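Hey forum,

I'm writing up a methods section and want to include a predicted complex as supplementary material. The small molecule is 2-oxoglutaric acid. I've pasted the protein sequence and the SMILES. Can someone with a working setup run it? I'll credit the forum in the acknowledgements.
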Amino acid sequence: MAPASMEWNENSLHEKGFIRDEDERPKVPHNKFSNEIPVISLEGIDDLEGSDGGVKSRRAEICEKIVKACEDWGIFQVVDHGVDARLLSEMTRLAREFFQLPAEEKLRFDMTGGKKGGFIVSSHLQGETVRDWREIVTYFSYPIKARDYSRWPNKPEDWRLVTEEYSEVLMGLACKLLEILSEAMGLEKEALTKACVDMDQKVVVNYYPKCPQPDLTLGLKRHTDPGTITLLLQDQVGGLQATHDGGKSWITVQPIEGAFVVNLGDHGHYLSNGRFKNADHQAVVNSTTSRLSIATFQNPAPEATVYPLKINKGEKSIMEKPITFADMYKTKMSGDLELARLKKLAKEKQQNSEKLKPVKNIHV
Ligand SMILES: O=C1C[C@@H](c2ccc(O)c(O)c2)Oc2cc(O)cc(O)c21
Ligand SMILES: O=C(O)CCC(=O)C(=O)O
Ligand SMILES: [Fe+2]
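Reply by user p_vandermeer:
Happy to help. Structure tokens for the complex are below, copy them as they are.
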């Protein structure tokens, strides 16, 4: 298949299918920031000691904030997480350098045709009806035994070294957060990681070029992440948006230097029997600056069973029956594509029936 073009200009916007239907277009600009998404410091997360007089431990305080954020939005930001700021800036610098490489260098890792990892324009899914205004480079980092380094770019220099370190450190942070969520569900702290069997990790680096008409398109369409939890590192430009009322209103997440945005995915939502939301989000672009974000998806193993870990008295399971994560993932992605296809068909039908309507006589 011919590689997708990377000429990001007015013509590509109109001719290559990036224009969204009106109801999907951005409602809020990329830089009108909201402070509704909680920012939680993880300082003292390992401190189990409560002071005298019935005062809560720092861990219990952090746990309470995380749980509230997961119940309200399924999204929050963490600071004081212990990940070295130099690692974050190296990772960001190298990721930016990758996207500045000549097209032929990036296309050495072309992912079209379903290859597992590499570079692609717009989407990891083939058959999207409207395209996302982005380029991505993605690599599968866990389980380590399944790594295929031939799909990891070897340029810029040090990319592989830094990405390996980044993956390992983020796996540690994600497991810490999953411990907190397990405890909040009244389960042993390893419950969520055990439910993942052998946790998968996939890193997707999103590069959103500046766009001549950002009001007509999206960098990344509205979605929920399929996995357990996602840690997102974003630059200071802004563009990540979330909704917790089914898309009626949107907020733009305030970028914070060195913070991670944490999104709960569908797997996390199902395992908590719906108590924790799967973050409903999208990314918008702008006409002045390109933007970079790095999403680390923590997923269960493909063969892991997806089903609520605990169903409280008086509640019903939100799932009819257990399924494997591989099946859940396939059903979700093909469902997302099918929905978009049906929407396009309905729109075309409406346009055709409008064309066929007899023109009314106008009596003056
Ligand atoms: O790029 C993404 C974002 C996201 C996603 C979920 C559902 C969609 O229909 C969609 O277009 C994007 O989650 C992902 C999950 C993956 O396994 C790979 C990705 O590239 C992504
Ligand atoms: O770029 C962003 O802010 C959002 C990225 C995202 O949602 C994703 O990669 O799944
Ligand atoms: Fe996402």
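Some notes you might quote in the supplement: The pocket of ERD (ligand 1) is lined by residues 123-125, 138, 202, 204, 221, 223, 225-226, 297, 333, 336 (CB under 6 Å). The chain is about 30% helix and 20% strand.
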